[in-house]
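Title: Comparing notes on inverse folding

I've been comparing how different people in this forum approach sequence design from structure. To keep things fair, I'm posting one structure and asking everyone to reply with a full sequence. Here's the target:
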């Protein structure tokens, strides 16, 4: 985020280093931060809008933009129906690539990875989304340190289901305790909804 202060960016980088070293104690970790400027944000939005709006597309995720030389390079994962043929899927991917290049001639390279979207998962999620949100709000009430739960989103990546939510904690609560409560909340959710592949809980001050 280009609006972050240098201190906040440095703090986030240190947190990433600590978490990575905790998981891989023998690794040497160094995180460098760089501003994500308005021009790069506009490219990300452009790519997302084109990929989602192309006929035959069922969604897009894992959009990555990096600089090669002085020009941006785009990498993305495109979801298409599992019933498509290989040719049909590649035709959709080719159209996405052409549209992105046409919309921004400065982009030096576009790589589109094709994935099949699960129609079954999509139908199941349509029925449980409201129920899941109510359940999470109910479970969160068991933890007085959690002041609010918001931005609950279910994302479908192929055959996997990704749950993302934000928890607002007491600003004076230590981060270790917040992590512990988040882990307990995640365990409760997984017990009730075992088909959820990944759960990301973002901890923020209330």
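Reply #1:
Here's my take.
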């Amino acid at each position: 985020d280009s609006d972050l202060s240098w201190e906040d960016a440095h703090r986030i980088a240190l947190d990433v280093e600590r978490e990575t070293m905790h998981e891989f104690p023998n690794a040497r970790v160094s995180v460098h931060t760089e501003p994500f400027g308005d021009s790069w944000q506009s490219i990300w939005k452009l790519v997302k809008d084109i990929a989602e709006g192309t006929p035959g597309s069922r969604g897009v995720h894992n959009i990555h933009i990096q600089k090669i030389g002085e020009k941006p390079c785009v990498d993305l994962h495109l979801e298409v129906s599992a019933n498509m043929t290989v040719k049909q899927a590649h035709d959709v991917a080719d159209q996405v690539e052409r549209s992105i290049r046409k919309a921004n001639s400065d982009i030096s390279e576009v790589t589109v990875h094709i994935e099949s979207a699960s129609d079954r998962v999509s139908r199941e999620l349509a029925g449980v989304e409201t129920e899941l949100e109510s359940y999470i709000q109910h479970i969160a009430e068991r933890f007085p340190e959690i002041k609010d739960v918001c931005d609950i989103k279910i994302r479908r990546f192929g055959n996997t289901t990704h749950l993302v939510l934000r928890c607002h904690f007491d600003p004076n609560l230590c981060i270790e305790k917040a992590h512990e409560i988040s882990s307990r909340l995640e365990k409760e959710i997984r017990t009730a909804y075992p088909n959820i592949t990944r759960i990301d809980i973002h901890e923020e001050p209330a």
